[in-house]
Amino acid sequence: MNKYTGIQRDVGHRVVLNQANEEQVCPLAATVISLLNDRSDKATRNVGPEIVERVALAMVRDDGDVVDTVLSALLHERLTATQIIGECIPQAVRRLGSLWFEDRLSFAEVTIGSARLQGLLGSFSPDWTDWNLRAPLPPDVVLIIPENDDHTVGLHVAATQLRRAGASVRLLFAPTAGQTVQALRNDPTNVLMISSSRLQDLAKLADFVSHIRRNLDPVPPVAIGGVVVNLADDIADQTGADLATDDVLAALALGCVTESSGGYAGHGPPQHYAIGADVEIASGRNG
Known about the structure:
The protein is of the alpha/beta class and about 290 residues long. Helix content is about 40%, strand content about 10%. The protein folds into two domains: about 5-40 and about 140-275, Rossmann fold, CATH 3.40.50.280; about 50-125, Methyltransferase, Methionine Synthase (B12-binding Domains), Chain A, domain 1, CATH 1.10.1240. It has helices spanning about 25-40, 50-60, 65-75, 80-100, 105-120, 150-165, 175-185, 200-215, 235-240, 250-255, and strands at about 5-10, 15, 140-145, 170-175, 190-195, 220-225, 245. A five-stranded parallel β-sheet has the order 4-3-5-6-7. The chain has a two-stranded antiparallel sheet with strand order 1-2. Helix 4 (about 80-100) packs antiparallel against helix 6 (about 150-165). It starts with 6 loop residues before the first strand and ends in a 33-residue tail after the last helix.
């Protein structure tokens, strides 16, 4: 359980709003909730191991057009963008790693394949060239990968998912706690997300979050994500984060709070992003 309570899931596992918070819902919040529900509603082909295998092996071919070819093939398989971004690409990266461990691929091939998979994400990023300057600013997310954590593809997967949900994302690679505080003082954010894959780094993450809370006022909601949330059940408690989840939309919802309800407004007029300051999110792992 965490202190943010305002949306939950019904018996059918759809995201719903508590009635008391309905008047605080904004277009962005409705979009986030719609995306959360949409993933379980669409009947599409599953991302099976045979698809993952084909994608992983295709990415190491000596073919300059391989990214476009793979994208066309995946769409032909009736996979949605959500599946390609959140399932197929991460699983293909992991498969490349296992093929290297099995000595079936060289380190250079794995590096090239991973870079191509990361590049594939660019096909799904929204086009900001038509952004209406008179429209409300999108919610801001600062997404951090800690020092000595090399799972950068996962970070870019999360960034792509957030941008498709309408957020503006800033990536910080291995910043110190002090550098993060300074960055947030100069340019506040709606939510701070930290992507980690190393269980052994939890103590360092706890120190990092503690430093943020001691030296920043107001403090944005802090969410921990990445592989680490599947390695233990009490990640939020151990790190001092508000939420631990592998669901970036749940983490984004955490930052959609109103100034009037005591939430951290961050970027832009807060009324445009209201879900309510007290949000209980059942998707992902909660601390």
